[in-house]
Structures are given as structure tokens and as C-alpha cells.
Amino acid sequence: MKPALSKNIRMGRGFTLAEVMLSTTLLVLVFAAIVSVNLWGLSMNIRSEIWLDTSDDSRHSMWMLHEDVRTAETIYVGTGSLAGFTNAGATNVQAGNALLIYASTNTNSWVLYYYDPTTNTLFRTNWDGTSVGDFRTVSANPITNDNYIFTMEDYLGNILSNATPYPVVAVYLSFTKLQNPQIDIEPGSPVDFYQINTKIAPRMRP
Amino acid sequence: MRTAWILAARGLRSCDGRVIAITAKGGGCLIESCMKFYALDRKRKVAGAGAFTLAEVIMAGAITAVLCAGIVDTYTLASYKSQFAACSLAANMQAMKKIEQVIFASWVPSYGITNIFNPALTNADPENLEMPVAITNVVSCTNYTTITQLSANPPYLMITVNCVWGFNGLATYTNTVAVLRGPNL
What we know:
- The structure holds 2 protein chains of 2 kinds.
- Chain A has 2 helices and 12 strands, in the order ααββββββββββββ.
- In chain A, about 30% of the residues lie in helices and about 30% in strands.
- Chain B has 2 domains: about 1-40, no CATH class; about 85-180, no CATH class.
- In chain B, the strands form 4 sheets. In chain B, strands 7-8-9-10 form a 4-stranded antiparallel beta sheet, covered by helices on one side. In chain B, strands 1-4 form a two-stranded antiparallel sheet. A two-stranded antiparallel ribbon of chain B has the order 2-3.
- The interface of A and B includes residues 44 and 51 of A.
């Protein structure tokens, strides 16, 4: 009885140094593992967020542009802003950072896409002939101006050097920042390159 | 008496089930009822309160390992699926891009204009999927275009673009977009 009683009492009073050190080491290891798994899960979550949100953003950016170009009666490419639009000229290379679209033969009604270098953003605005149209951000992600955003091409992908009312419109957007999550696109970042390069053909043909 | 309460709380009882009475005397403990003592469920108490057996430790470790593996697998699967969804959407956009180019080619059978059957349009077209990348994770794809005239009267044809892309070297997937097109008016 005595050994059992003394053992009980000893166990009730405390632990040996070896027990404390071992249990502390185990606790530290377990805690480090939990923290590591959580951090790893967080990084995976951010990666998933990047995949899905950029896909969502690109769809939202492009669907309106697709609709406008496909239903266009006449398309001009050139330079422009809210102050006005200047087309590339009938005998020049058909490329620029602004796109003017007439949906019908009525030239009082139009849609204008233009790149704003101040905010590095592509905007869309329109005029319905009687009142100010809406004013929307097509791409809220800052974009670079390293190449023309809009280019007119023929059916083989050659850039046109003459204006034509029914071109294939090639769109090039190269982004410098993601919106959600807010990540700068640069070397060393989780994303160092992201662009959208697409083509849209008007359904109206000669 | 304080010690007696502690011991009683620990389950030390006499053989007839009564809690033993212990009094403090001269700084030590004396047991007044000299009977046969034993700890009720002693082994279980010691195992539960003081330490674990090897079997318990191994069981707990195994359960923890299974749980951790499940969590890691879930994260991996979620990431895999989201990347797959992004790749699939990007492949769809690549196929649409090619469709838009081909659909624009002129085709006026009555005037003999058959630009749409230009062989350059049906060449294999290697591209990269347009999605956020970081140096090494560029996903390449190839567009295969077929143009088939389904009927001469009325004239219409089908344009099919297959965007074939590989996913992490694990498998190859194909996104197909097809449209029916009539001649230019």
C-alpha cells in the first residue's frame, strides 16, 4: 500500500524535469505543425482566389465589349477620351487605345471605349443622342499601355492598314494589378504576368 | 481532514466502501480505520488522469494524422478544382477567339468567294491559356479548327474549334466550341 500511495501523491504533486521538457517539446512541435498547416491552407486559398476572381473579372470585362462589337454597324479605332475621339485615319495602321462603335446608321448614337492613362483603366461610355449615357468601368484592374488595346485585323489575323467598317477587333489588355485579392503583378509576386488577348467579329457583314 | 478529503476525492475507500478517515497528527497522516484499502478503479484513474497508455497514444496520433491528411487533401482538392475551372474558362475563351476569327472570313457561294475555306484558318494554332501566371505555371494549349459544309442548299457550314490543353502534366482536356454559319448576305 505504501508504494501505491506514495506514487499517487507524487503524481499529484508535479512532473519531473524530463517529463516537462518532453511534453513542452511535443507541444511546440504540434503547435508548429498546426500553424504551418494553417499558413499553407491560407496560401492555397489565395491561389484559388486568384484563379477564380481573375476569371470572373475577365468575363465581366469582356462580355459588354463582345456585345457592343458584335452588334456594331460601324467601328472606328483611334485615340480618344471623354473630350473626343480621333480615328486612326483611312490609310493608317488601324490600331489605337480607343474604339468608337455605331450600332446603327444613326451617328448621333454611339459607344466609346477609351483608355485613361491617369487611372490606367479602360472605360466605356455611350451617348444615345438625347441624353448622357451611362459611364462604366470595363476593366477596373490597372492595365499597361505597352501595346495598343484595340487593333483591327482581317480574317487571317493581319493588322489592317486601311479602314474598313467590318473588321475583326483584336483586344489586348495587360494588367499590372489584380483587384481581388489586391496583388501587384510583378516579379516575385504570386502573379507576374496576366493578360487578355481576344478577338471579336461584328455579325454585320457587307 | 483536508488530506482526507483529497484522498476521498481520489477514490480511496475502505474495503466496505466507506471513505477512509485520515487525520493529521504531528505533521504526518495517520489512518484511523485500519482496514484493507484499495483505490477504486485505480488503474483506470491513473491511466486517465496521470498518463496515457501506448495504445491510446498511437490511436490518438493515428486519428490526428488522418484528420490532418483530410484537411490537406481538402485544401489541395479545392485548389486543384479552382485552377481547373480557371483553365477551362481560359480554354473556352481561346476557342471563342479562334471562332470569332474564322466566322469573320467571307463566304459567298453564289459569287465564288470562299475565304472561309482558306487552309490557313485550319492550321493547328498553339497558344497559351490567358490566366494569371508566375513564370513556370504557364498552361499551353492548341486550337484545332475544322470547317465542314453541312449542306449546299441551303448553304451552311459548321465551324468547330477544339482547344486542347494539358493540366499539370496529369491529363489532357479538350474544350470544344462549334457554330453553324450561313453565307454572307
